[in-house]
Write a structure and sequence with these properties.
The protein is built from 11 helices and 7 strands. By secondary structure, the chain is mostly helical.
Length: about 400
């Protein structure tokens, strides 16, 4: 025979708020405590007379658990008892329906990590990710989304190098590649929480270890491994995979339509499609293995790639003299388009490093955006092969 007692405790935190705690304790026939269920929440008091009205109306809802998502999150963070911390960096306990906690690294049924979309907080409890991405996170996702488009443009350029019909052959394929990258990016953002919105909830990134939690599963007494692997950076690891999948699907649909509508030669257009079927798997493998390193190094990767592409592009000009390079640069639309892309890459890399900071050093760095092109034009006369013989 069991008997249960219910006790309600209220405590003022400050003049405008207080804490309500409901404690349910069940005793056996031998008067031994067999079950204790504490639940607590915060009530915000308003000036008279709304203070008493709000308290009496909201109290039954808090007691019986009829509250919204924000209030539930508050209650999970003000539970009465504090569990022992779990070993490892990503092992945590989950709060189950009766108010108790699971074991470390244990889900409701199986021995798993925290649920997808949750992360361990300071108290060792798995809580939902309800933060919003910062500017650097958006720049990282923009880099992951813009990289396939650059590869598309490069493959289209090289496979269509023999043709001079830029408007009828190259431009439609570049427009198709742009649609194939923008539409999957929007669709990828719409399917994550909150669904239907271009914004999303994230757990945030604290350090490089968050990208590789599989290497930080704790080993108890050198014999038992507690598997706590989860996506600690939700959804920054998951989103690029979804984006690449949707990009492949859109590639298989949009690109053949463009080829048929503009009556492009299959020999030239198929080369860009085959190139995409090669570089998408490579991007997926690189992201799965080097995601954390790419997250912290992508601004410097962009700047290094932009400098190399600038030198390669200018080296393809037929006449390597400063006057001819400047003349060809302004005369041909393709060269102006490439120059605009390079300036965009320089600007994107500098803004990613600065994270839109107003520090004066980053503002000065913006003045050096045309520096690589100017340096190449001024020093091209010293790179002619016959000058190497003079030096030797």
């Amino acid at each position: 025979m069991y008997r249960c007692k219910t006790k309600t405790v209220s405590r003022y935190l400050r003049p405008t708020s207080g804490m309500i705690m409901l404690i349910v304790r069940c005793y056996s026939g031998e008067n031994l405590l067999t079950y204790s269920f504490p639940r607590s929440t915060i009530l915000i008091y308003r000036p008279w007379p709304w203070r008493l009205i709000r308290m009496f109306v909201k109290l039954p809802l808090y007691v019986f658990g009829c509250c919204n998502e924000e209030q539930t999150f508050m209650m999970d963070n003000f539970l009465f008892d504090n569990p022992e911390p779990c070993p490892g960096l990503y092992c945590g306990r989950q709060v189950i329906a009766d108010g108790n906690y699971t074991e470390c690294g244990a889900n409701r049924i199986y021995l798993l990590a925290c649920d997808w979309g949750t992360r361990v907080n300071e108290r060792g409890i798995c809580v939902p990710c309800n933060g919003y991405p910062d500017v650097y996170d958006w720049l990282y996702l923009g880099f992951m989304g813009f990289l396939p488009f650059l590869l598309h443009c490069a493959s289209i350029k090289f496979t269509s190098a023999h043709t001079r019909e830029f408007r009828n052959v190259v431009l439609p394929q570049i427009a198709a590649a742009f649609v194939e990258c923008v539409f999957p990016a929007i669709l990828s953002l719409l399917i994550v929480e909150p669904k239907g919105s271009l914004n999303f909830y994230t757990c945030g990134v604290q350090n490089l270890q968050d990208w590789y939690p599989v290497f930080y599963n704790p080993v108890i007494d050198y014999t038992r491994t507690v598997h706590c692997t989860q996506e600690a950076v939700y959804p920054l690891y998951f989103l690029p995979f979804v984006y690449y999948l949707f990009s492949l699907l859109s590639l298989s649909i949009i690109h053949p339509i463009v080829v048929c509508v503009f009556k492009l030669k299959k020999e030239g257009a198929s080369g860009a499609i085959y190139a995409a079927l090669y570089f998408y798997p490579i991007l997926i493998i690189l992201h799965s293995v080097l995601c954390g390193l790419i997250y912290y190094a992508f601004p410097y990767i962009i700047l290094f790639a932009a400098i190399c592409l600038n030198a390669m592009h200018l080296a393809l000009y037929e006449t390597q003299t400063p006057i001819c390079i400047l003349h060809d640069m302004w005369r041909k639309k393709q060269n102006l388009a490439v120059l605009g892309v390079l300036i965009y890459l320089y600007l994107y890399g500098i803004l990613s490093i600065s994270r839109f900071s107003s520090y004066w050093v980053y503002n000065v760095m913006l003045l050096f955006i045309p520096a690589p092109s100017i340096f190449y034009v001024l020093t091209v006369k010293f790179t002619h092969p016959h000058r190497l013989n003079m030096i030797i």
